[in-house]
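Input structure tokens:
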């Protein structure tokens, strides 16, 4: 089933399970102290879920040339505030920033082997 605004159920479940796995690995204290920036948490979830609203046929983020991680929200609170106004662009840019960070470490496939 595909919803026109939210995508397919498998994409959504994979996205949310990605959060669950990352949060479990970082731990409660790490999450509470901001060990993982919100942009990384959300961008990784977009890449893991292969959400085609933000990715091309090869599951690479689209049009990432101008994206800089330091311009993305770090705290969950800031993420929620900005996502309310610019969700499509924000999730896309977060996926681009994570993709760039992973590129020199073997890509998403290498990250998922942990």
């Amino acid at each position: 089933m595909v919803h026109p605004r939210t995508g397919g159920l498998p994409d959504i479940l994979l996205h949310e399970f990605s959060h669950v796995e990352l949060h479990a690995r970082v731990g409660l204290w790490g999450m509470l102290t901001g060990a993982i920036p919100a942009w990384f948490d959300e961008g990784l979830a977009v890449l893991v879920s292969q959400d085609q609203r933000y990715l091309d046929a090869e599951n690479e983020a689209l049009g990432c040339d101008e994206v800089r991680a330091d311009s993305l929200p770090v705290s969950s609170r800031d993420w929620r505030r900005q996502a309310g106004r610019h969700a499509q662009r924000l999730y896309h840019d977060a996926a681009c920033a994570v993709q760039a960070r992973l590129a020199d470490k073997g890509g998403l496939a290498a990250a998922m082997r942990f």
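The chain has a mean pLDDT of 83. Residues 7-111 form one domain.
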